[in-house]
């Protein structure tokens, strides 16, 4: 493949999988070292170690994976997310991966199409996808993928997989970019920005301040005429049919509350109710609602009464 797009000063990561060709990997590293010059560097990391561990954040401009041999394995979402984290903002991932032409009923380790792979890359944080090419995996490479990449040695199962995947398994090359901002970065929205005063502290926004021109407001004094400013005479506030002296008497259409007050005064006071307390011994008919003897039979005056059940016990 061509590495002419690598510029001086680039930090490049080459992924070494279990099926990579060591000679191709070293050849690619030697070529890229000349491309990046002394201001850049080229590292090789084993895929197995990346799966089990982590990569440094924002450390590389370019990553190449599954490029160093005719065999390729699928990357899971976790590994793709680690690639996204270790790329600098705007970094590029060059990826080769086997995909199915269409999803079938055969039980195979590969369960996604090209569009499914793009969806996985989106979920991992990548944008701006370019599918450079997709080639059918030839029969010889298909057998090697089943044996060496997927580790299937059973002859019958291997034969069935090769037969079902012949013409259906493709090797797709995808170029994906990391956004120009760091993953997890936060930005202040334009309407949330606040101006700072001279002391460097945030000035509190006047949210409820009405901003308008003075000539649009009406002078409230202009809404009143001369008659509105005259203080009314007390005599004009009294209805002619109201009795203002002597015995109080409500007018026919009284609305000041005097009629209700006079009606209340004219009603006789309610008779005071006599209490039946002291007659508890006569029975419930002579006992109040809170009497402790309520519900018990009558007894003779002065007779000692013992309350039954738990009535003599504390509630607490």
Automatic annotation (TrEMBL):
Keywords: 2Fe-2S, 4Fe-4S, Cytoplasm, Iron, Iron-sulfur, Metal-binding, Mitochondrion. Pfam families: Anamorsin_N, CIAPIN1. One of its GO terms (molecular function) is 4 iron, 4 sulfur cluster binding. A motif (Cx2C motif 1) lies at residues 277-280. Transmembrane segments: none annotated. Residues 277-291 are annotated as: Fe-S binding site B. Its cofactor is [2Fe-2S] cluster; [4Fe-4S] cluster. GO terms for biological process: iron-sulfur cluster assembly. Residues 9-186 form the Anamorsin N-terminal domain. [4Fe-4S] cluster binds at residues 277, 280, 288, 291. Residues 271-306 form the Anamorsin C-terminal domain. A motif (Cx2C motif 2) lies at residues 288-291. It comes from the Eukaryota. [2Fe-2S] cluster binds at residues 242, 251, 254, 256. One of its GO terms (cellular component) is mitochondrial intermembrane space. It is found in: Cytoplasm; Mitochondrion intermembrane space. The twin Cx2C motifs are involved in the recognition by the mitochondrial MIA40-ERV1 disulfide relay system. The formation of 2 disulfide bonds in the Cx2C motifs through dithiol/disulfide exchange reactions effectively traps the protein in the mitochondrial intermembrane space. Belongs to the anamorsin family. This is 15978_t:CDS:1.
């Amino acid at each position: 493949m061509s590495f002419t797009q690598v510029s001086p000063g680039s930090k490049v990561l080459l992924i070494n999988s279990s099926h990579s060709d060591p000679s191709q990997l070293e050849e690619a590293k030697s070529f890229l070292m000349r491309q990046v010059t002394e201001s850049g560097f080229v590292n090789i990391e084993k895929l197995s170690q990346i799966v089990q561990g982590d990569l440094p954040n924002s450390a590389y401009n370019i990553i190449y994976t599954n490029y160093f041999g005719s065999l390729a394995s699928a990357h899971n979402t976790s590994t793709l997310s680690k690639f996204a984290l270790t790329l600098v903002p705007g970094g590029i991932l060059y990826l080769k991966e086997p995909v199915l032409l269409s999803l079938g009923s055969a039980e195979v380790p590969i369960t996604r199409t090209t569009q499914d792979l793009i969806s996985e890359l989106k979920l991992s944080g990548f944008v701006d996808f370019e599918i450079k090419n997709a080639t059918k995996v030839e029969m010889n490479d298909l057998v090697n993928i089943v044996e060496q990449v997927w580790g299937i040695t059973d002859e019958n199962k291997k034969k069935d997989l090769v037969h079902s995947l012949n013409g259906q398994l493709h090797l797709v090359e995808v170029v994906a970019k990391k956004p120009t901002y760091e993953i997890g970065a936060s930005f202040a929205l334009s309407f949330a920005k606040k101006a700072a005063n001279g002391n460097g502290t945030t000035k509190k926004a006047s949210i409820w301040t009405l901003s308008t021109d003075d000539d649009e407001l009406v002078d409230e004094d202009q809404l009143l005429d001369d008659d509105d400013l005259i203080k009314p005479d007390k005599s004009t506030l009294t209805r002619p049919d109201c009795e203002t002296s002597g015995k109080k008497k409500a007018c026919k259409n009284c609305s000041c509350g005097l009629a209700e007050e006079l009606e209340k005064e004219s009603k006789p006071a309610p008779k005071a109710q006599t209490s039946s307390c002291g007659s508890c011994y006569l029975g419930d008919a002579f006992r109040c609602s809170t009497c402790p003897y309520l519900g018990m039979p009558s007894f003779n005056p002065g007779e000692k009464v013992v309350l039954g059940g738990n009535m003599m016990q504390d509630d607490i």
